[in-house]
Batch of 2 targets.
Target 1
Amino acid sequence: MIVPVILSGGSGTRLWPMSRSLYPKQLIDIYNEHTLLQNTLLRVSGLQDIGAPVVVCNEDHRFMTAEQLRQIDQKALSIILEPAKKNTAPAIGLAGLTLVDRNPDPDQDPIMLVLPADHVIEDKDKFYSIVSQGAELAQQGALVTFGIVPGSPETGYGYIKKGPVLESCTNAFKIDRFVEKPDLETAKKYLDSNDFCWNSGMFMFKASVICNELALFAPQTMDACRRAIDKGGKDLDFFRLDKASFESISANSIDYAVMENTDKGVVLPMDAGWNDLGSFDALWQTGEKDNLENVVSGDVLVHNVKQTYIHAENRLVAAIGLENFVIVETKDAVLVAPRDQVQDVKKIVGQLKENNRNEALTHAKVFRPWGDYETIDMADRYQVKRITVKPRAKLSLQKHFHRAEHWTVVSGTAVVTKGEKEILVKEDESVYIPLGTLHRLENPGNIPLELIEVQSGSYLGEDDIVRFDDAYGRKEQ
């Protein structure tokens, strides 16, 4: 059986302001009507002999990840929560140990298909064909990586040099070596030689084989992964690792930890319309273009604009006299940059983090397991939010020490706990929660509950919450 292992721990800083640390690119719909994570899961669901996926994600993204699986009727074998970013070697080790623990019988040893959650593959038939070849090689004990057939001298990707052709599969090659991102002249030589593939970060191997190789070449990583699992445990739909054990691991990629050291490595070239959507230039390349090669979405007007990417989410964006530019508008930020400099977006994100700007972390709309909220006005001693609560969902039983709240229901019906009372609040009705009062908001209906919240007080931060009961196991907001 093939078990997809979806690595969904990235932060997508090169796609800011569309992608934020707490709402990264794999969780947003930047390619089609589905998010990149959903596209990855739907893509692998078409494979034969496919099992339920193992998803490895950042702890901060757990509820959004689970909700996105639910939206496409996908049930994970396990959603493993990483309390820190440690790169791909620990993530793959955790998934491998999880599968070995579930299938101790060597005859039931599953083949792991490891895929980043944020890639696009346009030709599914070619993808299925190459994965089938990879499964045969993995069944023989090989550690297979899929190398992308390069179409241009890219400097933003690592490369893999192909070694001798395998006797058992003329489409596959032993791995000669991995190469870091080259300069342009070197990339041109790689392309002309036909000896190199782009390093995609996609792999196939038996769970037991990769665990054994990790134990051989990265024993400290595997020992810490083992402790993190043994001291961890189930938490709702998730598996929560032991934080101290996992944080003791040194960050390392599977390339450095294993693939550059093992004698079992095999590269299988793939030409299936792959793109990692790692930048706005990549979004322009894969997007649907008009007659002047512009890619636009949202409320956009252009005049004398060519080869430009414009994304508008909330308001009209008008552009005049531009060529090879990127313009991205969100509710709380606007990015303008030449297309050939969009790799430097991460430097802006670095400045935001240095200045403790919230725009680096989250969007104006903040997602919670019960729904979402969006700040629509804010000043000294007051804040106004638009809150949406999912059907049958409820917030935690809580109180605040520094703020009072006034809720007005716009649509739906709310059940409000206020001290010892339960109050039914209908459309166009409101309720006041004084400072320090124990309270809870619940949606008992089958449609979303929408309301306006007005906060007032000396401090309006999200950390002014004391929880007494929470259906989602949260201790802090």
Target 2
Amino acid sequence: MPSPWRALFDIPRDVAYLSAASYSPLPRVTVEAGRAAMSNKAQPWLLPAGFIEQQNETVRAGAAKLINADQSDVALVSSIGYGVATMAKVLPVPRGSRVLVLGDDHSSPVLEWHARAGEQGFAVETVAMPADHDWTRAVLSAIERAGAPPLAVASISSVHWSDGALLDMMPVAAAMKQAGAALVVDATQGVGVTPVDVKALDPDALIFPTYKWLLGPYGRAFLYVAKRRQNGVPLEQTAHGRRDVRAENSHYLKDLAFVPDARRYDMGERDHFVSMPMTAASLDLINSIGPATIAAHTRALTMRLAEAVKDLPVSLTPERHRSPHILSLGFPKGTPPELGAALAKHGVHGAVRLGRLRFAPHIYNDATDIDRAAAVLRTIMADIGG
């Protein structure tokens, strides 16, 4: 059965794009929003008063809705790395303490802590990738490890980017609170496809970008900050982060106190004429469909693919530990180096990550794409002896 959402995208029928975990294609409505936004920037004198503030708050509200957050708890940032750097500046990490990260996690939630560890005198502890893919148990064991230095922060992804292994964040969050430590979540591979409720989870921070599962442009991301962490000094010092620094005032630097919510952490040059309206269009689409519906759709597709390749010499992340929207295939001798290019020649697009072949369908994919990918993979493996 064709996807009811495929017509919203400019994707030829002979293309099976299964790499949303890398970059998503833009919906037609988002592309049109970008074209209109370019016209706005071409003639900015036609913009109505309050346009910039309105577009910023529209986008902020759309992001907050996706994670069940208060609008005032969401900052507009450029990337996961920006959000992690902000929280590394805000969160106390005492000398002699430790910061937990995941083994082979993406660079974004990891490198900032390595950069600070020497000067600040704390240790970065890497949780090794478990052979059974049970990241939840591995992280809980690291949090509770007897004799370990005090735990200050865990900076971890909720879905591992390389193989789609899913962490159960609720027990992790509870264990972090028990340890008196802060939790920073990179939700890049989760928000928009899996339901996320920050009021239930209560992390100190949760960060997610638009260019993958939110079907948006590059260079936009969101930083949720718990109210208890909204009294820090931002990464950048901006006029919009202060109570009353306005060009319209007779005295420009009138009130230098920070605004009292997460808006103080908004990035500099946040007022993008082009990418903000595009982001708003994509968020509207994702919110209108709903993460639960998207998760059910993608789970059916990854399950279909898992069934189709079960007789091939590949290993899969166990179903109980994998996310609904990512299926990663391991090969006994590692992924053949020519496999990704060979698939692309036949119109099938996945991604090779850490020696595994990752497929990541979204709403524009359907059973035809999955069957095509399985058939092409089978043929190529037979040809190369994989």
